[in-house]
Design brief:
Helices cover 53% and strands 4% of the residues. It is mainly alpha-helical. It has a domain of 58 residues. A two-stranded antiparallel sheet has the order 1-2. α1 crosses α3 and α2 runs antiparallel to α3. The longest helix is centred in the last third of the chain and has 22 residues.
Length: 91
């Protein structure tokens, strides 16, 4: 499904598939969820436990979007407050 040709304010022609245009965060989050379920994944922490729990009860795609949202918020907070991310151990 492609979007129709559009002319942007700077007179560029934009074409292409809307599914593949800058929508990488959910794809990466799905990959993170798949890796979290493998035996080679690192020791469980709160974020991983939360994501796997959410996936069991809400489904893989909703969990992937929620994880992408949470990772974006974490990245913003790390950048804004200039701190390192410290994952808390799973309870």
């Amino acid at each position: 499904m492609s979007i129709p040709l559009e002319v942007s304010p700077v007179t560029e022609v934009i074409t292409g598939n809307w599914r593949n245009s800058g929508r990488n965060n959910p794809r990466r989050a799905r990959a993170v969820l798949c890796h979290a379920k493998t035996k080679t994944a690192p020791a469980p922490d709160r974020l991983r436990a939360w994501a796997l729990h959410l996936e069991r009860f809400r489904g893989h795609n909703k969990a992937a979007v929620a994880l992408a949202n949470k990772l974006a918020r974490i990245a913003w907070a790390v950048w804004k407050y200039d701190t390192d991310f410290a994952a808390a151990p799973a309870a």
